[in-house]
């Protein structure tokens, strides 16, 4: 690990004033410190924001507010979230390990770097780590890599389970800087890799995520998160599906569906949603809708199984939530 300065701002305003181009905010540090040890990330200064007033879980009006400094485990176990937004609670419980969830924050989870083994290995090229150096995953080991939203410069899958659930629910993130505050839809916050895979977020240097807001739709109560992975804990998804259904008399009036583990950012499955809307909640409907899940997929050498796995995961989530009828 390279030397760095460590500072503890006393207020949010002070943190924003001190933030610069080569500064990183430190909260739980579960990803940042790991990447600093590997010298994948080498900031010259860390600003400890762990004691800043970035906490709180509440519903105000028709919106759920979650402070970016809330710990993942606290949000996962919060009665309001478990009862009214089960897809969020389930996505968090299936993330990382209990030890990590006890330290990691909501903001840190949503801002973690999209990465693969090549990104973590400084002996290999990586366009995210060293723009223009190349992407060994395109023709190398790529079993766990993305099939949607990829480019010739990057095929790493987005790592956050929580982000998939929040994209399905049309969540937004709130950002603060010396220039003021702004709100961005989470679906728009994450960039596709294109020719600039190192630019991952709609976030300027020195901007700090302060909160997440989620529309408190009544049918968010009927939601679930299904994650398929190689082992039962502490493993990224091979594929995952966040699903919320508005059911009335056995008919699907509306659906929200997003996928993880298969794309370079949380992937909203709009074609699946359209195929479900207005249809009866039964297995035949689910299978027809799931056929659209991997539209536009570009499998690589070793991950050709992912389109079918994604389709099956969509059906599994729908059966779990809507029944077979």
Automatic annotation (TrEMBL):
Question: Where does the FAD-binding PCMH-type domain start and stop, copy by copy?
Answer: 1-219
What InterPro entries does its record include?
CO_DH_flav_C, CO_DH_flav_C_dom_sf, Diverse_Substr_Oxidored, FAD-bd_PCMH, FAD-bd_PCMH-like_sf, FAD-bd_PCMH_sub1, FAD-bd_PCMH_sub2, Mopterin_DH_FAD-bd
> Per the record's keyword annotation, is Cell membrane included, yes or no?
no
Any GO MF annotation of the entry:
oxidoreductase activity
Mind listing the UniProt keywords for this protein, alphabetically? Oxidoreductase
Out of the domains of life, which is the source? Bacteria
Entry's SUPFAM superfamilies?
CO dehydrogenase flavoprotein C-terminal domain-like (SSF55447), FAD-binding/transporter-associated domain-like (SSF56176)
**What's the name of the protein?**
FAD-binding PCMH-type domain-containing protein
Q: Which species is this record about?
A: Phytohabitans flavus
């Amino acid at each position: 690990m390279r030397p760095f300065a460590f500072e503890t701002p006393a207020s949010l305003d002070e943190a924003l004033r001190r933030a610069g181009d080569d500064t990183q905010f430190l909260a739980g540090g579960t990803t940042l410190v790991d990447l600093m040890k590997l010298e994948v990330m080498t900031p010259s200064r860390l600003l400890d924001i762990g004691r800043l007033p970035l906490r709180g879980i509440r519903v105000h009006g028709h919106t759920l507010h979650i402070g970016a400094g809330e710990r993942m485990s606290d949000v996962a176990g919060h009665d309001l979230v478990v009862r009214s937004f089960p897809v969020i609670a389930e996505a968090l419980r299936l993330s990382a390990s209990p030890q990590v969830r006890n330290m990691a924050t909501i903001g840190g989870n949503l801002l973690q770097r999209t990465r693969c083994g090549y990104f973590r290995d400084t002996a290999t090229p990586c366009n995210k780590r060293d723009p223009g150096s190349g992407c060994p995953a395109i023709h190398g080991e790529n079993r766990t890599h993305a099939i949607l939203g990829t480019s010739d410069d990057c095929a790493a899958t987005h790592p956050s389970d929580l982000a998939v659930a929040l994209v399905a629910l049309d969540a937004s993130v709130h950002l603060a800087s010396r220039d003021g505050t702004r709100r961005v839809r989470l679906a728009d916050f994450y960039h596709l890799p294109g020719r600039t895979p190192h630019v991952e977020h709609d976030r300027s240097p020195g901007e700090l995520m302060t909160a997440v807001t989620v529309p408190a739709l009544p049918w968010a109560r009927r939601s679930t998160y299904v994650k398929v992975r190689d082992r039962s804990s502490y493993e990224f998804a091979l594929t995952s599906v966040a699903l919320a259904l508005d059911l009335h008399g056995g008919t699907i009036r509306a659906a929200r569906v997003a996928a993880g583990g298969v794309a370079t950012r949380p992937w909203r499955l709009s074609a699946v949603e359209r195929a479900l809307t207005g249809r009866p909640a039964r297995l035949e409907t689910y299978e027809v809708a799931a056929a659209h899940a991997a539209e536009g997929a570009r499998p690589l050498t070793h991950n050709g199984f992912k389109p079918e796995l994604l389709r099956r995961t969509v059906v599994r989530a729908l059966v779990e939530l809507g029944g077979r009828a």
